[in-house]
Amino acid sequence: MTIVTPSSASTSPVPVDETLAAWVAEIAELTTPDRIVWCTGSTAEFDTLTREMVAQGTLTRLNAEFRPYSFLARSDPSDVARVEQRTFICSEREEDAGPTNNWAAPDEMRATLGGLFAGSMRGRTLYVVPFAMGPLGSPFTRIGVELTDSPYVVASMRIMTRMGSDVLARITPTTEWVRAVHSVGAPLAPGEQDVAWPSNPVKYISHFPETREIWSFGSAYGGNALLAKKSMALRIASVMARDEGWLAEHMLILKATNPKGRSMHIAAAFPSACGKTNFAMLAPTIPGWTIETIGDDIAWLRQGEDGRLRAINPEAGFFGVAPGTGPSTNRNAVDMLWGNSIFTNVALTDDGDAWWEGLTPTPPAHLTDWQGNDWTPASGTPAAHPNSRFTVAAAQCPSISDDWQNPDGVVIDAIIFGGRRTSNVPLVVEARDWDHSVFIGATISSEQTAAAEGTVGSLRRDPFAMLPFCGYNMADYWAHWLSFGRALRGRGRVPRVFQVNWFRKGEDGRFLWPGFGENVRVLEWIMDRVDGEVGAVETPIGYLPLRDGIDTSDLDLADGTMDELFALDDEAWLREADGIESYFAEFGDRVPAELHAQLEVLRSMLRAGAEGS
Ligand code: SAT
Ligand code: MN
After folding, report:
1. Superfamily for the 18-58+81-245 domain
2. Which of 2, 273, 429, 551 could form an S-S bond across to 449 if both were Cys, CB 3.0 to 4.6 Å?
């Protein structure tokens, strides 16, 4: 076994903490790689890795004339999304994982994983990837180390996190750090030819919340393999946050400035592939507005010294959905992808550039599709996989905020919850108070997308957009949100909370609201509500805008569209309430009393309304 240590791989030798070195040795003994490389995070290292992957066939270098320093990866067709059925929370007690997670007993899972990881890196390199979530030196920031046999994972982690020697240098005997082990599960016999995208039909994405460990086997897809992201920054971090009194959330963060020069920071939770990246980079259609981006997927929030709610984006890059990203839906994203980007499962043009549905109004006459096959517009299949992705540094985003790496975070003035709902849920509604906010977050449902395996379009509850990402019992998570609000109320200001739905459809099946840049009109109402500048109508589900409360000037909307967008069907909502009651029943007596009380308020207000009408 060859060991490439930091001192031989880097010009600034970094001493390695003994506990870390011992752990790496232990994992190497189990997985038996041919080589160990301690990653420095340097550009030279990234170049070497990508050159090796091009030679191996894992990456295709895109034409530098159109897209310099950029690559296309084609995954195995069976390894294209998160595998929620194979994702486990291995807490000591089953009830601590709760009914929304797959649970496995830690000892049994360790035995299973021990068998799978034994010799799993044979013929490969074990990369040691020290990473920080959050800006180095920030009180929010947490450290982890991922051991992986995938160079694709290393290259992606270099874009998505702060990674390498600077982080390694911060690991001392007193540092707390998360242990993450990843293998594609495809050992190579001596002389065996590797495939372009090694993976294994057997997959385990396992989390041990009590010991803050992650073990991922069999997949190289982002959400299953870049363990800093969903596994560490959400599943493990949500448990740390519960224990330490903060929040780890599936939220974008943006800064909005209105024509009067008033700025606010807003955090917003939407399920995967529901437009978080587009919202975070929104190009406003109303003159005088500016939207700046802090983050597009994950937010860590805590009460600052000043008592206010503050948030950081723990990531350093964007792992966004490519299809649907185009000049009219997300100009900033198109521009940030000028180069230095890794694309996964998009299509390839004949002159060597990346393409996906929505990038241009009409597709090129010929492409190579995400599986490497010839494609023409007559093929009848998508050229890019619906969950194809781009990976790019946040710093390349034209709308990135100057504050995106502020070690103290930014003050959050409002929180938005959203989902993808064809009916019932209005364009925007404001929660009455914190308990009602938690009730709204806890009961959100959304139609499923291609970001995870499952039936696209089927309605499922996705509380706080955290269904796949909460590392403990969801009912305890609701209780944590309730107590977090009490702490905020005690010392600072509690942010106002809103629910939005960009996806409501009319009877003809078409979206009622134009979305994208026009969503600034909803932000305008939200900011005016926070500042107490506009009134609202109280309804059973919260405060709705007054008639004409949303500025629709210059919008080409059919007559009655705004009424449809805000239509409240009491009978349908009474059925929603019944659905919520059965949903709560799945959590037994762990559901906080405040949420049962909110359900009763909803019901009695609906009944009063139904009788009155
Ligand atoms: O694949 S990821 O989990 O990283 C992205 C997402 O589904 O939100
Ligand atoms: Mn996400």
Report:
1. Phosphoenolpyruvate Carboxykinase, domain 1 (3.40.449.10)
2. 273
In sign, the C-alpha dihedral spanning 590, 594, 599, 603 is positive
Q: Which atom of ligand 1 is nearest to the CA of 452?
A: 7
Which residue shows structure tokens 């372009």?
A: 196
Give the distance (Å) from ligand 1 centre to CA of residue 320.
8
516 is in an annotated binding site: yes
Listing DSSP states for 291-339 in one string gives EEEEESS-EEEEE-TTSSEEEE---SEEEEE-TT-STTT-HHHHHHTTS
- Its CATH class, for the domain covering 318-396, is mainly beta
Q: Which residue shows structure tokens 């409002």?
A: 414
Q: How far apart are CA 206 and CA 180, in angstroms?
A: 10
Picking from 53, 31, 40, 32, the residue whose alpha carbon sits closest to that of residue 9 is 40
Residue 262 CA to chain centroid, in angstroms? 28
Q: 0.90 exceeded by the pTM?
A: yes
pLDDT bracket for residue 12 (50, 70, 90): very low
Query: Is the Cβ atom of 451 under 6 angstroms away from ligand 1?
Result: yes
Per the DSSP assignment, residues forming a β-bridge with 72 are 60, 343
Q: What are phi and psi of 155, to 5 degrees?
A: -60, -40
Annotation says 274 is catalytic = yes
Query: Which residues have a beta carbon within 5 Å of ligand 2, which is an ion?
Result: 272, 297
Q: 355 CA distance to ligand 1 centroid (A)?
A: 20
CATH topology of domain 248-316+403-569: Phosphoenolpyruvate Carboxykinase; domain 3 (3.90.228)
pLDDT in tens, 191-242: 999 999 999 999 999 999 999 999 999 999 999 999 999 999 999 999 999 9
Domain boundaries, given as residue ranges, for the chain: 18-58+81-245, 248-316+403-569, 318-396
CB distance 389 to ligand 1 below 6 Å: no
Residue 578 alpha carbon to ligand 2 centre in Å: 29
Is any ligand 1 atom within 6 A of the Cβ of residue 82?
A: yes
